[in-house]
TrEMBL record:
<keyword id="KW-0812">Transmembrane</keyword>
<dbReference type="InterPro" id="IPR036013">
    <property type="entry name" value="Band_7/SPFH_dom_sf"/>
</dbReference>
<keyword id="KW-0472">Membrane</keyword>
<dbReference type="InterPro" id="IPR001972">
    <property type="entry name" value="Stomatin_HflK_fam"/>
</dbReference>
<keyword id="KW-1133">Transmembrane helix</keyword>
<dbReference type="InterPro" id="IPR018080">
    <property type="entry name" value="Band_7/stomatin-like_CS"/>
</dbReference>
<dbReference type="GO" id="GO:0098552">
    <property type="term" value="C:side of membrane"/>
</dbReference>
<feature type="region of interest" description="Disordered">
    <location>
        <begin position="304"/>
        <end position="378"/>
    </location>
</feature>
<dbReference type="InterPro" id="IPR001107">
    <property type="entry name" value="Band_7"/>
</dbReference>
<feature type="domain" description="Band 7">
    <location>
        <begin position="20"/>
        <end position="178"/>
    </location>
</feature>
<dbReference type="GO" id="GO:0005886">
    <property type="term" value="C:plasma membrane"/>
</dbReference>
<comment type="similarity">
    <text>Belongs to the band 7/mec-2 family.</text>
</comment>
<dbReference type="Pfam" id="PF01145">
    <property type="entry name" value="Band_7"/>
</dbReference>
<dbReference type="InterPro" id="IPR050710">
    <property type="entry name" value="Band7/mec-2_domain"/>
</dbReference>
<protein>
    <submittedName>
        <fullName>SPFH/Band 7/PHB domain protein</fullName>
    </submittedName>
</protein>
Amino acid sequence: MTPLVLLALFALFIVVLLSKTVRIVPQARAGIVERFGKYKTSLPAGLNILVPFIDKVRYMIDLREQVVSFPPQPVITEDNLVVSIDTVIYFQVTDPVAATYEIANYIQAVEQLTMTTLRNIVGGMDLEETLTSRDAINSRLRGVLDEATGKWGIRVNRVELKGIDPPPSIKDSMEKQMRADRDKRAAILTAEGQRQSAILTAEGAKQSAILNAEGDRESQILRAQAEREAQILRAQGEGQAIQTVFQAIHDGQPDQSLLAYQYLQMMPKIAEGDANKVWVIPSEITKALEGLGSSIHEVAGIPRDATPRTRVDMGSTEPLLPASQDPELASTSKAVEDAIAEARNAANPGKSIPGEAGTADSGTADPGISDPGAPTGQ
């Protein structure tokens, strides 16, 4: 049994010896080796051989970048307002020996240094500047920390202000100020919108009035032109009708019987007037009609057995333009006026028109016409 015990003890000793001799360091780590309580060397990552029972790995330092978030710290601003500021520090150990032997707890040291530096920086700013100058605070704080922690073997990469919380009363005042500012901007925008709307409405009304006035002017011009052309066409039509009737009278060669018949047809129309109180019928209607027909022929300038020596040229039956625009129309109108004047000059000026003698006023009758109530010669 004794050899077996000895063998077991020897195996155990070998295992312990190997554990004390061989040491594996993970990647991005550094081991601090002490020999008899004094710094001996730093173990790199990988397999390392130590002197058993003499060398000892005292600390294992993490060389990766570390992130530490510190709790909110009360800071007084220049305008005597207390704000709570949360900070986040990004740092990395560059010298494991200095981080181990130059300072006891570098995490706590960085926290206290951050708090004191932050109070110093923010103490020279008012609240509004503090809230709007985070980049400046981060830059100044990082510079101070990096300079102070350099001898500790620590490099501060970034410093961030995670939160700046003013007192509740200040928050309420800031919200009211922000709300008032937004209400002001909303009122300004509303007023500008109403102004632009009024300007556009006025410009639209102006353009509408101008267009309406131009439309009215154009319509009045067109109506005046249409009325003028209508009057010209009516005048041309009346002139054409007069020429046609005048030519028909010359071509038809009217006699006394026709004129007497026309007079008889006109007598009822003469009697239709309300002002005609007395209607006189000639006693000898045959002689009266013969004399009347003779008078009409003589007054009209139409001889009993004569025909017009010269036929009047009627011209085109199309509507004519005014005389000022058509020279042929002017000459034709002049010819018609000359013919009518000659016919009137040829008439006997001593005789009256039968139409005027056929109407009696206040019981007076023409000498050739007798009262229908009086006895005739027959």
